[in-house]
Amino acid sequence: MIIKKLRIKNFRSYYDVNEFVLSDRLTLIIGDNGDGKSTLFEALHWLLNTSRLDNDNSIDHVSEMRLQELAVGEIDEVSVEMEFDHDGEKSIEKKFTFERQVDGNFAAGKLSYIGYETNGAERVQVAGKQLMDRCFEAFIQRFSMFQGESELNVFDSPTSLKMLVDKFSDVRTFDNLEALTKEFADKSYKQYTAEAAKDKKVAKQVNALTVDLNTANRELDQLRRECRDKEQSLETFENELAQLEKHQGTSERYNELKGRLDKQQKEYDRLMTMANRTNFDISLLDKLWVLCAYPPVYKEFGEKCASMSKEKRQQETQFDQERGRRIGQLEGEKSVIEKLVNGSAKLPWNLPDKATMQEMLDDEICKVCGRPAPKGSEAYEFMLHKLEEYQQKIEEKSKVDEERRRIEGDRLFRSSYVEELHNLSIRLSGEEERNVASKCKDILEEMRCVSIYREQLKITDDRMQKIREEISNLLIQAGNISEDLLEKNFADLKSLFVQQNKTQQQISDLKHRIKSQEARKDDITKELQALEPDSIKVRELKEVNTIFSIIAEAFSSAKKQNLRLFLNDMEDRANEYMHQLSVNDFHGVLHLRETAEGGAAIRLQSSNGTAIKNPSGSQLTIMYMSVLFAISDFTVQRRDENYPLIFDAATSSFGDAKEAVFYDVIDKLDKQCIIVTKDFITKGKVRTDDINRLTCSVYRIQKAAGFDQNNLSTIRTMVNKIK
């Protein structure tokens, strides 16, 4: 969605009609305090809000200047209209009328919320709510429109980020699929065990294994609950340690080591993901690597198809020429017109007709001239010859017509197989042929990369072990702070660190026990599945349960993998934006991680892994904006949708230097941003030189001169496009 034009009429300080034509990239709307910046943002928010269509026609929205001008009974309207592009040209308008009544009060008319979209060549009206929910739904608006710096922080709650994950990744789909397939697996298992318990051959084994499996499931659930509890405790210890480290001199070295460890752990996880990212067996078909030997076949096939097509065309041309020659020859074979003695043309061969000539021969009289023509006479022989000529001509004509039809209907090729093969060779050439030719290169490159990743994994693991040893020694050798502070804080630090390590070990042990218990459960399940009951029905139910169990496990694994990959992708993209937006300043590293509750959390860290405890306002603004830009990119990639980012006074904590860098970067982004700000104004005057350095569109809004500071009805915002 790209906003093309915004038109505001009689909305608060925007008296009469005011119009903004917006760029596909950055549009700056600058104004000083009280000039109407927030009113502009609120007008747009009012237009886009679809949740209050029954009571959103308040007189408070109407321009005080316009209200004071109204005569009794006079009617005008307040409206906000937006033209935008979203799979074609569309527009949306929210408006209502207002009227001055006899008693001097004002009455608001019914709210109208109408949309228009182009359907082919026709512009049709649609329900405004329906159009807005389809093109710019409320959830997207939550990550699109921000008033002030405080509203940028939409990620404080893990629920918000989890909603984002659900919206823009495949995880939410897997939630339902995982639950559904697990339900199928459980139901099919109950049916199988219930029927198997009736089978005399396996009933005893089924009952015993079912008891073992139920026990294993209960123990597994208990272990998982304990693991989640420990993970939550670990988060608590980490938070408390972070607070102590803030006041602890030793924390500088500790944070450095911890940062290096986290960095190496992140690198280890990344390398592990990359090393295991490709299943070569599956890729053989899924990535079509099996086609790597086909380029020579493609080439030979194309050459043969082209040769056959050419040969066929040549033969068809020769055949058509010969057929035309034969038809022309038949046309030319016409009877030579015989001449009478006096030079006149004789009668046609078909006159008189056959029946008349036969009648004259039978009656032995020429019924043309009326003279007798007895058999054997010259006249009789003439008529007999005429009849024979008639019959001969009929036969010759029939043969010629038949030959012509045969020649015209004759075809050299009765099918289009050569054309079909030639068209197929064309479809397989070009981009398709190049894609197939690249398969061998892809395979070799992937094998080379995996080998490199595995070697780097070993090196990274050795580095992590050395850093852990340094951290352990540091906690024993804290000597650069006062003894009292060291005794108190170091004791607390050491205690928490011991508890943290203990909890980490417990989590590790629990995960190991969970893994062992899962293996035990799998063994019991395999024993159940390996039973060979007598009943055909039981065997069928066993197969059904096996299939559903495999599917359920596949969806569960896919869900976890999708969440992990989504968070990694968003983290990388957001950090790219952070680097761009703070290229000349410290900005830290943004980190997204999954929490014990199954949600996700956002952290700002130093590159060495140290948590940034008290980030400045500008650092937070950059961090949140970076994530917002990353989310915007994800909407385009994951949902094939685009939407504008709209900020009102989002950079108030920036200094002049950071402000200049920020706008230089935003100006170059291929993304629609609308920023309403008082930046670029000093002592009421626009800094033209700074504006001219940018390539974006710029509007200046300001109060019309001559207003009364005590009278709201004298306030009117003027809109002027200065660039």
Describe this structure in words.
- By secondary structure, the chain is of the alpha+beta class.
- It is built from 20 helices and 17 strands.
- The strands form 4 sheets. Strands 1, 2, 4, 5, 6, 7 and 8 form a 7-stranded antiparallel β-sheet that branches. A 6-stranded mixed β-sheet has the order 9-12-13-3-16-17, with helices on both faces.
- The protein is extended and about 150 Å long.
Number of strands: 17
The coarse silhouette is extended
Q: What proportion of the residues is helical, as a percent range?
A: 55-70%
Terminal-residue CA separation: 23 Å
User: What's the tally of helices?
Assistant: 20
- How confident is the prediction overall: mean pLDDT? 78
Overall SS class = alpha+beta
List keywords for this structure.
alpha+beta, 723 residues, 7-stranded antiparallel β-sheet, 6-stranded mixed β-sheet, 20 helices, 58% helix, single chain
Overview in brief:
The chain is an alpha+beta fold and 723 residues long.
